[in-house]
């Protein structure tokens, strides 16, 4: 399985939904606490190409986007393949 990293912040309902979806698929992930104004948030912005919101989700070096994009990939049946789930 590829490395999955997700930048989140406390109290973010979209972060909770994204983490819950990944956990429901049995995906091990590195959750990075990235509240506004932190070095971790700046890292997420740079890695994502400028996206300011959380969550920011990465599979390997590929930026997937946020919760909306993650859910869309799942609905389209493409997420499992990206995660290496067959």
TrEMBL record:
The keyword Methyltransferase does not apply. Residues 4-62 form the Glutaredoxin domain. This is Glutaredoxin. Keywords: Cytoplasm, Disulfide bond, Electron transport, Redox-active center, Transport. Belongs to the glutaredoxin family. The keyword Glycosyltransferase does not apply. InterPro entries: GLR_AS, Glutaredoxin, Glutaredoxin_subgr, GRX_bact, Thioredoxin-like_sf.
